Amino acid sequence: MIAMSDVTKSYRGRAADNPVLSHLNAVFDGSEDIGILGGNGSGKSTLIRLLAGMDYPDSGEIIRSPDMRVSYPLSYSGFFHPNMSGRDNVRFIARLYGADENECIRFVREFAEIGRSFDMPLGFCSSSVKSRIAFAMSLAIRFDIYLVDEVSAVGDVAFKRRCMAAFAERRKHAKIIMVSQAVTTIRRMCTRGAVLVDGQLSWHETMADAINEFENQLGIIHV
Amino acid sequence: MNGSVGNTAGNGAFVPPVPTGGGTQADNWVMPALMRHYRVIGALILRTAQTRFGHTSVGYLWALIEPIAHVAVMSVVYWAINRQDPVGGNVLLFFVTGVLPFFLFQKTALHVGAALRSNQMLLRFPLIHALDIVTSRGLLEGVTWLAVSVLILGGMIMGDYAPVPEYPMECVGAIILIFTMGMGVGLINAVLGKMWRSWVMLYPIITRPLYHFSAIFFFIDRVPVDLRRWLLWNPMLHGVALFRAGYLSDYDTIYMSPLYLSQWAIGSVVVGLCLQRITRKRIISA
Q1: Residues from chain A contacting residue B52 (CB–CB below 8 Å)
Q2: Is A160 on the interface with B (CB under 8 A)?
């Protein structure tokens, strides 16, 4: 379970009376796939980072129950050290989570299919190699909740298909919390949804209702 | 999944591995929390050891060369100006037992102080606490120092250039206190350097005189009273004195105060922890 209680978050350079998230309350119990829709700058990424524990709220509390592993955002590669090889980066993250290093390395190497680049310092690797490793790394650790900040598939069609297949396999034992503006992806993957507007979450019983509100909201903005 | 990994199923889909270090138990969270810190710090030490010293082993060699070079330069200067031996006739041992404890403090305070700035990306990692980064950096520095000291002093003992320590426990006490103070000052440096960029430039300037004022190359008993009064404010002078007195009773001095050193060690850690606590939200996003 992740519980957010009265969470407010603003950033420097932004008026304090206009926070990104404002007195937000929410409970994610990990029983459903949650989709959160929001326009540009509505605070989607901020929400995901707070849920992941990558940032503190200005006020309020975020509590994660210890029996549930929450992922860092899917495919996030910001933790990789450029002077270390893909293999060593994978080993480091596996150690942090107490996962079997060799299993993780073998999984990432076979899944990413990047050959000898796996042993080169990541700073010398192309961005596609990095994102292949990052995606495989997210799957190599067994999380109970995957946090997804827009699905950005990488690589050729075959690799994209493999990513989707592997992620689908993972989701048999895990739930997701996804933020996106891509209505089609969210409709396909999530069962319950909310719209992030004015720093608050507006919840709906079904994903379809949430999508309706989001599209209405967009319509109003466009008109 | 039978614990097998990376099996390509018939349709080309991969079966992800199931990590062994499964979920923590909710009914008892103390041990899992401790195990997590232990694991995180271990992973960080291995990572830092890998990136800090570069990909060649020359990096580790530098840790050994630096203190030797300091001792060598000062020995040559002493020999050139043909000065009287400081104490006990063994110039080399006098210098080594001064340079080593000083390096323990200086290197720990400096590298721990840089740990947060150079690991910004890790501060955002959900499992990693800022104190994990600081602790792992300090431990790596401490272990490196221990290896270097054992090599140098061990080498000198083997080559009959030095006796074995007379009161080893006193040396160990000095090492613990100096290391603690290095961690405390390092933690203060880490926080201040993150909040206030100029501190990174200021700290080396402010502490530059410490090297000369810690009685590494002279004996505190032979300093004129008016000067000594001021020098005794420096906690590292007491650290060096305590280490030396433990190594050889000839080096014992009545001016040494282990209590004063302890107070600095504990005080700096307390101040560092408080600073870290106060600034933890700003540090992660700075």
Answers
A1: none
A2: no
Q: Which of B15, B33, B284 sits opposite A55 (nearest CB)?
A: B284
**Angle between helices B30-52 and A86-97 in degrees, nearest 10:** 160
B-contacting residues in A 91-110 (Cβ below 8 Å): 92, 94-100, 103-104, 106-107, 109-110
The single-letter DSSP state of residue B253 is -
The CATH number corresponding to A1-12+32-71+145-223 among 1.20.1440.230, 3.90.650.10, 3.40.50.300, 3.30.420.40 equals 3.40.50.300
Q: What is the DSSP string of A169-213?
A: HHTTS-EEEEEES-HHHHHHH-SEEEEEETTEEEEESSHHHHHHH
pLDDT tens column, B109-165: 999 999 999 888 899 898 899 999 999 999 999 999 999 999 999 999 999 999 999
B117: closest CA of chain A, how far (Å): 14
| pTM for this predicted structure | 0.85
Centre a 10 Å sphere on the Cβ of residue A107 and count the other Cβ atoms it contains: 27
| Cα separations in angstroms, A218 against A146, A201, A222, B148, B183 | 27, 16, 6, 65, 54
Minimal-distance CA residue of chain B relative to A97: B21
Q: What is the ipTM of this complex?
A: 0.83
Shortest Cα distance, chain A CAs vs residue B118, angstroms: 11
For residues A149 and A48, what is the distance between their CA atoms, to the nearest angstrom?
7
Q: Is residue A120 classed exposed, middle or buried when 0-12, 13-18 and 19+ CB atoms within 10 A define those classes?
A: middle
Residue ranges in chain A modelled with pLDDT below 70:
13-17, 151-155, 220-223
As a whole number of angstroms, the distance between CA B52 and CA B143 comes to 14
Q: Where on the phi/psi map is residue A23: left (φ > 0), alpha (ψ -120 to 50), or beta?
A: left
The C-alpha of B111 sits at a distance from chain A's nearest C-alpha, in angstroms, of: 18
Tokens of B258: 């282990």
Q: Are A49 and A7 in contact (CB under 8 A)?
A: no
Residue to substitute from A1, A88, A97, interface B, most B β-carbons within 10 A:
A97
- Name the pLDDT band for B5 (thresholds 50, 70, 90): very low
User: Is A150 in CB contact (< 8 Å) with chain B?
Assistant: no
